[in-house]
Amino acid sequence: MDDRDPEEPNDEDSQDAPGPSCEDDFAHVPSDKAARQTQPDPEAFASLNQFIFHGNVDASRALIGAAFKGAGGERAPTAVVGRIDDVEIDELIDGYVAPDPHATAAPALAKQKFVVLAGAPLIGKRHAAIKLLREVTQKPLIVLSPTISLSRLASRTYLRGHGYAVIDWCDPDHGLDTGRPASELEWLAVRTNIRRAGAYLVITTVDCTVGDAGKAVPAVRWEPPPPRRLLFRRLGERVGAAEIERTAALVPADCAVSGVLRIAERLAAGKDPQAAVDEVLDLVDREHVTGWFQQKPSRREIVEVVVLALLPEVKDRRFEELLARLEDELAASMPPAQASPAREDSQERISAEEALPQVRSERADASNLIASHSGAGEEPVTFAPRFKEPDYRALVLSELWRRFDSGLWNAVRSWLYEVVQEIDLRLPATAGLVLLATVAPEEVEEQYLEPWSRGAIGTAGQLCAAYALSHLATEDERSTTALHIATRWVSHGNSSQRWTAALVFSGELGARYPTDAVRRLWQLIPQCNDLSVPAALAMGRLFATLVHGSKGAAEVIRLLGERLALTRTVGTTRELRRLILTAIRAVLSERDPVSGRPAVAHFLISRPDQAVRLGALWAAALRNTHHREEAMQALDRALFSLLDVGEARRLADALVRALDANEQAVLRTEAAHLLRNCRKHGRPTDHIQILITVLDEFRSGFRHASEEGP
After folding, report:
1. What is the pLDDT of residues 13-60, one digit of tens each?
2. What is the DSSP letter of 269?
3. Where does this protein have compositionally biased stretches of type Acidic residues (predicted)?
4. What is the pTM assigned to this prediction?
């Protein structure tokens, strides 16, 4: 039995799709000067940092979160891989309603120990997987990465009696991007490994990725339970049967499970069935938006709703400037019909020429979708267009996509390529694209995310692509989409895409999938090319992102320590060692994005058991003359932030123990110099005194041991 935590990556995991290593091609190793020149623009990391970190310190993230109903922008995303605690399991299966396929899947899992649930998104497959596993075992349940390959599933270690789930699986070797479904032999290898271990595995996926699974393992086509059954199970006796029946008749058969559950919540709160259904499914707003489009609005009116749907909260003249720019793009893409000849009546012609269009008042017409804020009384009049109802925004984008061909969307694409060059419009534009992706995911990925991530419009586009995936990572329903895209960029993209992916994995996506993030960033570091240093810096940013999680930050520390131990200061691993030390320096220097304190200080407070590992990394950084100054500054900040004397002593003790006597003497000199500087500038010195005290204690012990020696 493998005592290691089964969801932690091992050496095999970090070697998926490796690039050339420093050991393999030392001739291509960049010099120190070149390595320093390949560091990413600090403003790029800082700009993304404003968005990807936790919402309570991030106004820009709040802007995007507010633009999406149910996007979860108010909370930091939690990891969706790893062991599921019992409380979460109970929450997931509470009120679970078994659809008809459950009767097929349950006995198949009990007998075969492995089953695949295939079906459309948003039909409850995740809840079903957890429920099925809990029915066959009371031992821990572990969620594996959605990007794990069949070959890895066939070779990894499983713990006897444990349950494993892969949610929204897409095998990087046989997924949608490759067009090569997995063979029966590959599925049989997974089944054999699971059976040999005495574990249980449930994979959920879409139909087109199953391949020949049905011949080797049970592949059950999953369907959601009927809305009527869901409503009765959810509401029980709290609502009368007649009212539930009336509600069920109003709910479309293809309504998402989450939608049916929200309707049930409103019924339980006393809402009328029609009102509950209308509110959840936006039926009234949808009818209004559809009716407006059926009235054949003018070109200008269409352009107005396009701008407002993609760039909300743009005020005053800025909105009208953006409107004019999109009108120009549309005129080039879809030239307007030729105007009819002027009438002979000169008086009528003069009248038309002299009349200025009252655009703002016409825009706010009662029959329109747009309203404007204005001052009241003697207050100055302000013009800030907005949709009359917040839900109009998504509905307008849906109708636009359904009604108009590529002529409009080519104009929108050209316009947005220019818009995102303006710094203050990048986040709103990204919000619009992510919302558009709910109805046109291929359009957004192929026309925007792919070319932007490839560097088609420079750093601005890469940042916006990173913003988009970072937002998708906050949504339970679309986080795996972000993971699949970022993983593909790392493994198969060009250098610009890998750089963009490094940004994404260091933030929200890393918080969701810490194991994948550590693995993919490490995949970039040993390649010893222009991306190695940015990936090393991203590893430090990932550590700061994960300090509020469970095990992710500790995995960064473990990986760097183990990899450093395999390198030497001379020879073929010298450059790899330099890159690992760059990552270590980044880990020691990064600040917690929530509190602003050093991330390592927060980490030590929450994980005191990691002090020895962290002390060893700090010692390695201090030994290196290139990193010593910054490592010493980071130590100063960390000790100062550890307000508790015991915590500061724990860090100092772990660090000093990792140094030999000569290295301790050097650190003692550095600490004394730092102490003098603190006194000179009136800074507190208690934390430096703790370090010096620990050093002196060790020096006394060493001298005493020497005196008693032979």
Report:
1. 333 333 333 433 323 333 333 333 334 454 555 444 444 443 332 333
2. T
3. 1-15
4. 0.82
Among 88, 112, 85, CA closest to 218: 112
**Closest listed residue to residue 602, CA positions, set 594, 394, 585, 421:** 594
The amino acid that residue 454 corresponds to is: R
DSSP letters along 426-484, please?
HHHHHHHHHHHTTT-HHHHIIIIIHHHHTTTT-HHHHHHHHHHHHHHHTSTTTHHHHHH
CA gap 598, 687 in Å, rounded: 14
List all residues 6 or more positions away from 438 whose beta carbon is below 8 Å from its beta carbon.
394, 397
How many CA atoms are closer than 13 Å to the CA of 310, on its beta-carbon side? Answer: 26
Tokens of 585: 């320096």
C-beta of residue 549 within 8 angstroms of C-beta of residue 558:
no
- Measured in degrees and rounded to the nearest 5, phi and psi for residue 272 equal -70, 145
- Separation CA 627–CA 618 (nearest Å): 10
CB 181 within 8 A of CB 209: yes
Kindly report the backbone phi and psi dihedral angles of residue 491, in degrees, each rounded to the nearest multiple of 5, phi listed first. -85, -30
Distance CA 49, CA 538 (A): 11
- Find tokens 């969706």 and name the residue: 80
Residue 225 dihedral angles phi and psi, to the nearest 5°:
-70, 150
Burial of 295 (0-12, 13-18, 19+ CB in 10 A): exposed
Q: What share of the chain is helix, strand, coil (3-state, %, to 5)?
A: 60, 5, 35
Nearest CA-CA partner of 634 in 615, 607, 659, 658 = 615
Listed in order, strand segments (DSSP E) in 192-349 are: 200-205, 219-221
pLDDT of 369 = 84
Question: What type of residue is 133?
Answer: L
